[in-house]
Amino acid sequence: MPQPGQQPEYFRAFQFSVEIDGIDQARFQEVGGIDATTDVIEYREGGDLLGPRKLPGQTKHSNLTLSRGYTADDQLWIWFEDVMTGRTTNIRRNVSVVQFDMAGQETMRWNLFQAFPVKYTAASFNAKDNNLSIERLEVAYERIE
């Protein structure tokens, strides 16, 4: 906690890692979709003329999007293929996104539970540019801590 008048320490967006159970080459260029939204349930009590009461309802999460330069490592594709073909019943994995400070110390960790891939996007190809080929994996998850 910064002292009064002292600027807080801000963390850089490029200092992160992703850990996926059973996948040891989880290095990504970009990660997005860590969020939670809780629905609002409104109800009106009889005789209350001030307006409806509001209660927290079900919490929902967006899908996590993982982007990386395309490599010969096909572990992400195999995980998606297992879901797509139903080859295995053990498709759910836990995923952690970890934020680091400038000294390389862990400052924040988002643990996503019961995750499985729902969309795979292969690299786009263009003979006119020399950018990296990027693959994307969209992952659904049930809850976050």
Characterization of this structure:
With 145 residues, the chain is mainly beta. Helices cover 8% and strands 43% of the residues. It has one helix and nine strands. The chain has one helix at residues 75-85, and strands at residues 16-20, 30-32, 37-43, 53-60, 64-69, 93-100, 106-121, 134-140, 143-144. A hairpin with a 5-residue loop joins strand 6 and strand 7 (106-121). It starts with 15 loop residues before the first strand and ends with a strand.
What share of residues are in beta strands?
35-45%
Query: Which whole number gives the mean pLDDT?
Result: 87
Tell me the number of helical segments per DSSP (H or I, 4 or more residues long): 1
User: Could you estimate the helical fraction of the residues in percent?
Assistant: under 10%
Shape: extended
Would you list the SSEs in sequence order as H and E? EEEEEHEEEE
**Which runs of at least 5 residues are low in confidence (pLDDT < 50)?**
none
Helix and strand content put the structural class at mainly beta
Query: How would a crystallographer describe the biggest sheet?
Result: 7 strands, antiparallel
Overall strand count: 9
N→C terminal distance: 22 Å
Q: What is the CA-based Rg, rounded?
A: 20 Å
Question: What layout of secondary structure does this protein have?
Answer:
Blueprint: E1 16-20, E2 30-32, E3 37-43, E4 53-60, E5 64-69, H1 75-85, E6 93-100, E7 106-121, E8 134-140, E9 143-144
